[in-house]
């Protein structure tokens, strides 16, 4: 097939005016595409700054409820919750994750009472609760796959009972989705969605997040025995296929911008809701460059989020959700 040649064909004709560029646009970012990740803490300070993430806070339970109302009013469909657990509640096995009155369960209840129409996605993983910061129980010299499953089932069950809409298992170990789906069926919680972190890579771009949830430490936490090797793409197909077969309703690819090829591949391979996670490091990088006057932040926000749509993402988890919703309105 030939598309013609210059000068009969001039690609600039279609780009020459705003109305025409609008008509020719192939992909559209809307507020419906956005999920806002949020951090909650158990102190009395209504909000605590996160040094490595400008404009991102750890909210108290009452403050997150107020903030969630604003997010709902902006038209953002859902938030993803992460807890900052007090140091003296952390244990090697992360038992606090299975306490039905823990911070995250209380937060979910408060949010569902005040902003019932806002979707709540709750993380299922042990890292905020363990003294060592790993996502699982350490046994036999390993972050133990199977011994972690039972506590994750409890964690999933109590969060679902508390009223969250979506469970997001994020530890990238084996058999999670099936085990969580099984407990939900047993407890008659069969309308709870599972959004699986199906392809999550061991990445240097999570640094600021670990600062926000308080799992940062002087030693770099190496999660390479459970999160994926960033050099791999075909392995992501196996990961996604397994999570779908175990009962996931949607999947996440993470990080975002350096992994657009994975989003494209997965969205072509599976007809399945596929979300991108523009992670903390990506957020902080753009902010840092903008602070130096090296790029236009608003333009970079909309461009980077539209790029996820172009790559085939259904939606995006992004710390820019509020900024983007305002820019799009
Ligand atoms: C851990 C978890 C991480 C993120 C979400 N859930 C970090 C990690 O794997 O250490 C990262 C999110 C971000 O960087 O924005 N369960």
Can you summarize the main beta sheet? 8 strands, parallel, barrel
Q: Trace the largest sheet across and list its strands.
A: 1-4-5-8-9-10-11-12
What is the β-strand count? Answer: 12
**SSE succession:** HHEEEHEHEEEHEHEHHEHEHHEH
Low-confidence stretches at least 5 residues in length (pLDDT < 50)?
none
In the CATH hierarchy, what is the class of one domain?
Alpha Beta
Mean pLDDT: 96
Give the class from helix and strand content and strand pairing.
alpha/beta
The small molecules bound here are: ligand PBG
CATH level-two architecture of one domain: Alpha-Beta Barrel
What is CATH's topology name of one domain? TIM Barrel
Q: Shape, please?
A: globular
User: C-alpha Rg, in Å?
Assistant: 20 Å
Find the CATH superfamily of one domain: Aldolase class I
Helix content: 25-40%
Strand percentage lies at 15-25%
Straight-line distance between termini: 41 Å
Structural features, described:
- This protein has 329 residues and is α/β, with parallel strands linked by helices.
- The chain has a domain at 27-252: TIM Barrel.
- It has helices at residues 12-15, 18-24, 61-73, 103-114, 145-162, 176-186, 207-213, 234-246, 260-269, 280-291, 297-310, 321-328, and strands at 34-41, 47-50, 53-59, 78-84, 119-124, 138-139, 142-143, 166-169, 193-200, 250-254, 274-278, 315-318.
- The strands form 2 sheets. An 8-stranded parallel beta barrel has the order 1-4-5-8-9-10-11-12, surrounded by 9 helices.
- Helix 3 (61-73) packs across helix 4 (103-114), helix 5 (145-162) crosses helix 6 and helix 11 packs across helix 12 (321-328).
- It is globular and about 70 Å long.
- The structure holds ligand PBG.
- Residues 123, 125, 127, 135, 170, 206, 209-210, 223, 279-280 line the site of ligand PBG.
């Amino acid at each position: 097939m030939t598309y013609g040649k210059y000068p009969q064909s001039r690609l600039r004709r279609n780009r020459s005016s705003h109305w025409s560029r609008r008509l020719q646009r192939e992909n559209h970012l809307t507020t419906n595409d956005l999920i806002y990740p949020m951090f909650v803490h158990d102190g009395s300070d209504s909000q605590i700054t996160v040094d490595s993430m400008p404009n991102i806070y750890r909210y108290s339970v009452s403050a997150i409820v107020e903030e969630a109302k604003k997010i709902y009013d902006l038209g953002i469909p859902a938030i993803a919750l992460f807890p900052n657990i007090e140091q003296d509640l952390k244990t090697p096995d992360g038992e606090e994750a299975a306490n039905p009155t823990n911070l995250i369960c209380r937060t979910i209840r408060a949010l569902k009472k005040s902003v019932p129409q806002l979707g709540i996605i709750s993380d299922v993983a042990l890292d905020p609760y363990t003294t060592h910061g790993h996502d699982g129980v350490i046994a036999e010299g390993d972050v133990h796959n199977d011994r972690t499953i039972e506590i994750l089932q409890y964690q999933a069950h109590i969060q679902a009972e508390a009223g969250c809409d979506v469970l997001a298992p994020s530890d990238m170990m084996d058999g999670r989705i099936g085990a969580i789906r099984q407990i939900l069926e047993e407890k008659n919680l069969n309308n709870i969605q599972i959004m699986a972190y199906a392809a999550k890579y061991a990445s240097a771009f999570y640094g600021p997040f670990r600062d926000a949830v308080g799992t940062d430490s002087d030693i770099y936490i190496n999660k390479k025995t459970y999160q994926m090797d960033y050099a791999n793409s075909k392995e992501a197909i196996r990961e996604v296929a397994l999570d779908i077969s175990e009962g996931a309703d949607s999947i996440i690819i993470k990080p975002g911008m350096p992994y657009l090829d994975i989003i494209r591949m997965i969205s072509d391979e599976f007809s399945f809701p596929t979300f991108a996670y523009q992670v903390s490091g990506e957020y902080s990088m753009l902010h840092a460059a903008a602070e130096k006057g090296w790029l236009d932040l608003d333009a970079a926000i909309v461009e980077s989020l539209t790029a996820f749509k172009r790559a085939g993402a259904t939606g995006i988890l992004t710390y820019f959700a509020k900024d983007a919703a305002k820019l799009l309105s």
